[in-house]
Amino acid sequence: AQSVSQHNHHVILSEAASLELGCNYSYGGTVNLFWYVQYPGQHLQLLLKYFSGDPLVKGIKGFEAEFIKSKFSFNLRKPSVQWSDTAEYFCAVIPFSGGYNKLIFGAGTRLAVHP
Amino acid sequence: DVKVTQSSRYLVKRTGEKVFLECVQDMDHENMFWYRQDPGLGLRLIYFSYDVKMKEKGDIPEGYSVSREKKERFSLILESASTNQTSMYLCASSDPGLAGTDTQYFGPGTRLTVL
């Protein structure tokens, strides 16, 4: 079955540290890739997405992600985190498999940033 | 801005009760979705609808049904609530873009507790 793996369930960082959250998916065909974020008490919202073109994608709030097709990965990065980045981050994939293409989510990574 | 609203933020029900969760979107989106979000499992798709009166099973439809009588409204029904349905329920909507390119917009969620 198609799946999305997020390697870290909990990450704790100090402000100004660099962030990299791993995401791997298990599907050999064409995929569209997403990162969503859920700040405490807020809606799940789109951080960035990749459909095609430049594999380095820039999103909101200084986040970026790189699609590496050979590694089936779409890792999220931010050079310097802030306390306001404390949230849960979800990687999601749409694998093209005929019919309606469903969004498949990873388990999520809880990020806590300490001042 | 797209707005997806859910009828309740918190709901407490008893085992065996029939439960209705309502979702309304104001962007004339074709597609609507119901997910449940559980710690360590991410979001799992229960049902989705790509048109009025149309519905498709997601990955975990057992114990749930849905209704879409109007384009803007998508209801999730728990026919006989059980304790293992205690969860956070998220509604989402999207417009169908080219295959797999539709971005889903999420509501604030309903935290359902079944006693």
Keywords:
heterodimer; A: 115 residues; mainly beta; six-stranded mixed β-sheet; four-stranded antiparallel β-sheet; 12 strands; 0% helix; B: 115 residues; seven-stranded mixed β-sheet; globular
Shape of chain A: globular
Instruction: Work out the number of β strands of chain B.
Output: 11
List unreliable stretches of 5+ residues of chain A: none
Helix content of chain B: under 10%
Give the N-to-C terminal Cα separation of chain A.
Answer: 41 Å
Largest Cβ-defined interface: A-B, 26 and 24 residues
Instruction: Tell me the major beta sheet of chain B.
Output: 7 strands, mixed
What is the rounded Rg of chain A?
Answer: 14 Å
Give a quick account of the main beta sheet of chain A: strands, pairing sense, barrel closure: 6 strands, mixed
Number of helices of chain A: 0
Q: Write down the secondary-structure element order of chain A.
A: EEEEEEEEEEEE
Average per-residue pLDDT of chain A, rounded, comes to: 92
Number of strand elements of chain A: 12
Radius of gyration of CA atoms of chain B, rounded to a whole number:
13 Å
Strand content of chain A: over 45%
Large-scale geometry of chain B: globular
How would you classify the helix and strand content of chain A by structural class?
mainly beta
Number of helices of chain B: 0
Distance between the termini of chain B: 37 Å
Oligomer: heterodimer
Strand content of chain B: over 45%
